[in-house]
Specification:
Elements lengths: L3 H8 L21 H11 L6 E8 L1 E2 L11 E2 L6 H18 L2 H4 L1 E9 L7 H13 L2 E12 L6 H10 L3 E7 L3 H6 L6 H13 L4 E8 L6 H14 L3 E6 L21 H17 L3 E4 L2 E3 L4 H8 L3 E3 L2 E3 L5 E5 L4 E3 L3 E5 L3 H9 L5 E6 L2 H16 L1 E3 L2 H10 L1 H5 L3 E4 L2 E4 L7 H8 L1 H5 L12
Parallel strand pairs: 1-4, 1-13, 2-3, 4-5, 5-6, 6-7, 7-8
Antiparallel strand pairs: 8-10, 9-10, 11-12, 14-15, 15-16, 17-19, 18-19
Helix pairs in contact: 3-5, 5-6, 9-10, 13-16
The structure holds S-adenosylmethionine and iron/sulfur cluster.
Amino acid sequence: MITQSRLISKYDVPAPRYTSYPTVPYWETNPTSEQWLQCVERSMQPEDSSLAIYIHVPFCETLCSFCGCNTSITRNHDVELPYIQDVLNEFRMYQQRVPATGERALRELHLGGGSPTYLSPDSMQRLLEPMLESCRVSADVELSIEVDPRRTTFDQLKVLAGLGFRRISLGVQDFDPEVQRLINRNQDYECTRRVTEQARELGYHSINYDLIYGLPRQDERTMRDTIEKTIALRPDRLAFYSYAHVPWIKAAQRLFTEADLPSGEEKRNLYEVGRQMFASADYQEIGMDHFALRTDGLWKAVEAGTLHRNFMGYTTQNTNLMLGLGVSSISDSWDCFHQNEKVTKKYQKMIGEGQLPTFRGHMLSPEDLRVRRLILDVATTWRVKLPADLSADVRAYLSEMEADNLIVFEGDQMRVTDVGRPFLRNICMGLDLRFRRNKPDTKVFSQSI
Ligand SMILES: C[S@@+](CC[C@H](N)C(=O)[O-])C[C@H]1O[C@@H](n2cnc3c(N)ncnc32)[C@H](O)[C@@H]1O
Ligand code: SF4
């Protein structure tokens, strides 16, 4: 039988993370703003429909050299209030054009970035209070934020807790000082511990840490040490991301050299080390990159069969509409994706002129909708029922994975085996008809492991 390390090297190929289908490089049928608003309207038609809001705050004070997110680096906090005003104006545009967005149940709101904790407590209040007041907030709403612990204060956490925030995600990445030096991110253990303890004290009940494997100068020793320190603080959830090295998009990743990065084999070993240490500490594997304690809502959603996946990653809420507000944010009405302008100044100009800041998107074809459902099913439940007309084709395409015992076919279902779990991205690629028909010539995705 083929060993785990052979499997990992065999299947370590560029692969999407499937937070959408079609994946972004395959978007082609861009909606106009008017077409997008019609999709929003349609998604909000059922009286029991619900929505989620994602707000992107792009600002960070310093640039971490590994970062692949959409950020604006500035220490000038005068940018806060105009930006908040623009996000509120954008939301008002939606509420005016599609009043149901203010009438349907708001079930999830997430502040992401960049660094949302760039905003002062007062700015946070000015953004969130009017927004929540203009929505019909559901009793089971989940309010969450991702924070850079180096720039997170007790006062910020308190303001958010007062508004109902109970979920928080801390960017940790790695605790090793040398790794931190190379990624330009000095964040001592005490800082992460302080924010974790303060959040718990204030009643946050779901604390996530983001960790990354494959960063410059990481090795097995540093990885074990980081994970031991992590487990000691007992976050409820863990995201264990593969470092996406995309220097052709993010120039700051050239601040370290490729010689500083663990080799393919070393990186794959770091992943296995992490996976085993999480399992020994009773973290359950949720799906791509994510682990959670049995007491966390994410695991409970797995058990209840209600886990969902969207641009925010895995979530416990499945809404008819996800409205992305702020620069570069992506919205999703299930049958259409819509992305906002990616340059902050242009986004602000468009909002100032009373226009929806449409940049691009994709209107899903009937085939896209079918494939989207299949990929979502396998990414959230480790199994999928294959339609009769696709079954033979998918089985033939994935025959090597079947032979390697990554998947098994049981009646009309395909199931991911325990051995196959680390290869979920590869398995999804077998269902991804757009990718299969038109493989990219250039490197557009990071490695699967
Ligand atoms: C918006 S960022 C971080 C939030 C916050 N600004 C911070 O730094 O803590 C969300 C997460 O994306 C992950 N991330 C960013 N760039 C990445 C890359 N190149 N490869 C893999 N993960 C990355 C990091 O784990 C990070 O915590
Ligand atoms: S990792 Fe976080 S703080 Fe660092 S540049 Fe990226 S978004 Fe900003």
